[in-house]
Amino acid sequence: MISGLQPDLHLAIRRICVQEELEVNAQNLAQVLRDVVPVMPHARRLEIVEEILLAFDGMGPLSALLLQPNLTDIVVNACDDVWIDCGTGMQKVDCSWPDEAALRNFAIRLAGLARRRLDEAVPWVDARLPNGLRLHAVIPPLSVRGTTISLRVPALETMTLERLVQLDSISPQGSITLQQIVRCGLSFVVCGGTGSGKTTVLNAMLAHVPDDKRVLVIEDSMELAINHPHVVSLTSRPANVEGVGEVTMRTLVRQALRMRPDRLIVGEVRGVEVADLLTAFNTGHEGGAVTIHANSAQTVPARFEALGYMAGLPREAINAQLVGGLQVVIELARLDKGKRIVKSVNVLEQDVSGRAFVLPALDLRTGATTSPGCEILQSYLELRSS
How confident is the model at residue 15 (pLDDT cuts 50, 70, 90)? Predict the structure, then answer.
């Protein structure tokens, strides 16, 4: 069992190994650790090197893949069917286990590292490993072909809006607009499909929250690493093997409101917590942000309606709170070859029947503006800046 190793330290060491193309061994790790943490007792340094080697070796056949530059995802469909994404779309790699039993044991071992259960009674797991990777695994009979594993790999590079401009994921003017949205305290939602970069963009934007603001982050699995001096993070917890001890996202939202947040951030809204979240955004907690899975910006109100229905809110209430609590919708997209882009900035409005709808403001690919959405966005920014 890996005990004391911090994911951030593991990530920093893996970053150096990838950048300098170092072999992962005790000698190289000890030297890298001296560079990362110059002042450390020798015994503790040896202990950490051993922990990192255990974490690396514990990834079995996948360990070599972790040294791939720009790696974002590893998916295992079967014992001889492994794919990775290095930012340009999925590609199959030469990686395998002897048989299904070996793969299943590997998945169970990973679940154990995260202190989670994976067996016939609980045939899936969703957790964060000690080395920072996010694990999702499913075993038969739920997974028909055999054990499947999905790993989300933390980026080696802390992404900023400036870096996104360099990567041509957003225009320079678009970057300035996103910074203004954050600094002015507008509440916003980042939407897009799976793997479109929602967490990356949200993380980059939140680095521009004024330093005197307290940022409180709620996630079901810690992924945001915000470059800000005053951040408090809360993560939900599933029930234990006895079926007790669960802490839901909704509970965390309620607790967060008693912790004096200046900016309330929910990594991803996907359940009944939407009711308490929108209530918070409508009762003085401005400048909040969430991400949500949606095919387009225009479908965001419908997604919130569906989540509000799960929470027992009538359509009228969810629409009123949505428009009252959120001002901006930022849409992301993933192009055919895997490139992620910040597609557009939109504003939320309400029609005569009370239904929320999304009004385009800025097309960040072409720089085109759309009236009256752009005028509304500018009025928001000017009002909050004054």
Answer: low
Amino acid in position 277: L
HSE of 181, CA atoms in CB hemisphere, 13 A: 30
Q: Please tell me the pTM assigned to this model.
A: 0.78
Q: Are 219 and 363 in the same domain?
A: yes
Do 51 and 76 belong to one domain? no
Q: How many domains does the chain have?
A: 3
Torsion of CA 2, 7, 10, 12, to 10 degrees: -170
State residue 6's pLDDT score.
52
* pLDDT per position as a tens digit, 173-184: 899 999 999 999
Same domain, 332 and 190: yes
Check if the beta carbon of residue 144 is closer than 8 Å to that of residue 158. no
- HSE-CB for 300 with a 13 A CA cutoff: 31
* Residues across the chain: 386
Residues 6+ apart with CB under 8 A from 204: 159, 160, 161, 163, 164
User: b/e for 174-201, b at 16 or more Cβ within 10 A?
Assistant: bbebbbbbbbbbbbbbbbbeebbbbbbb
3-class SS string, 262-328: CEEEECCCCCCHHHHHHHHHCCCCCCCEEEEECCCHHHHHHHHHHHHHHCCCCHHHHHHHHHHHCCE
Using CB atoms within 10 A of its CB, is residue 282 exposed (0-12), middle (13-18) or buried (19+)? middle
Q: Which domain holds residue 8?
A: 1-57
Residues 201 and 334 in one domain: yes
Q: What is the CA radius of gyration of the chain?
A: 22
Comparing 61-75, 196-210, 258-272, 324-338, which segment has the lowest mean pLDDT?
61-75
* Cis previous bond, 98, omega within 30: no
* Alpha carbon of residue 205 to chain centroid: 13
Same-domain pairing of 172 and 290:
yes
> Please, what's the b/e burial string for 55-70 (b: 16 or more CB within 10 A of its CB; e: otherwise)?
bbebbbbbeebbeeee
Query: Which stretch of 27-31, 227-231, 252-256 has the lowest confidence by average pLDDT?
Result: 27-31
